[in-house]
Amino acid sequence: MNTIWDKDKRVLVYGSKKNIDTTIEILNKKLDGLFTDEWVSRKILADIIVEHNLKATIFFDGNTVWNTKKLCTDVKRVVKGGMFKMTDYLYKFLSLDCGSIAHFNKQGWIEEYPTVDHLRRFFQKNEFGKKVVDHVPNWYYDAAVAVREMEKILFPCKS
């Protein structure tokens, strides 16, 4: 199920009816609308998602607005427990926005990157030959923040 937010048609909320209703209610209380600048709008939405731990998925102008806190928690889980601890949410982020093809499904991705060291190498050189942090465009505020924070988790000795 999905709903377009009345105050800004670029915002689509996807999920269960309960999660959509909760998200729309919070957006309506917090905002009168968004800005023309995508970076600013994405930052506002990303902060609301984290602050309220929203369960619905928010799309802005067709692209997912990511829960950066959840992504970092998911990466910590993988670092601690191995690649089979990868959530569907983290897989979608890696395959949609970090310079990776889907590899058919999450299991296929894990077969390509079976260890945390493989994941680290992917962050250093994705499937397009770029560092993941350099692959994410500047306007994609939430993804850029998530990648920088994930790098801190994957490479804790770097400063």
Protein topology:
Elements: E1 2-4, E2 11-14, H1 17-30, H2 38-52, E3 57-60, E4 63-65, H3 68-81, H4 88-97, H5 106-112, H6 116-124, H7 132-135, H8 141-154
Helix pairs in contact: 3-8
Explain what this protein looks like in three dimensions.
The protein has 159 residues and is α+β, with helices and mostly antiparallel strands. It folds into 2 domains: 2-65, no CATH class; 68-154, no CATH class. Helix content is 55%, strand content 9%. It is built from 8 helices and 4 strands, in the order E-E-H-H-E-E-H-H-H-H-H-H. It has helices spanning 17-30, 38-52, 68-81, 88-97, 106-112, 116-124, 132-135, 141-154; strands at residues 2-4, 11-14, 57-60, 63-65. Strands 1-2-3-4 form a 4-stranded antiparallel sheet, covered by helices on one side. Helix 3 runs parallel beside helix 8. The protein is globular and about 45 Å long. The mean pLDDT is 95.
In brief:
With 159 residues, this protein is of the alpha+beta class. It contains 8 helices and 4 strands. It has a 4-stranded antiparallel β-sheet, covered by helices on one side.
Descriptive keywords:
159 residues; alpha+beta; four-stranded antiparallel beta sheet; 9% strand; globular
Give a count of the beta strands, DSSP E runs of length 2 or more.
4
Percent range for β-strand residues: 5-15%
Helix and strand pattern = EEHHEEHHHHHH
Strand order within the widest sheet?
1-2-3-4
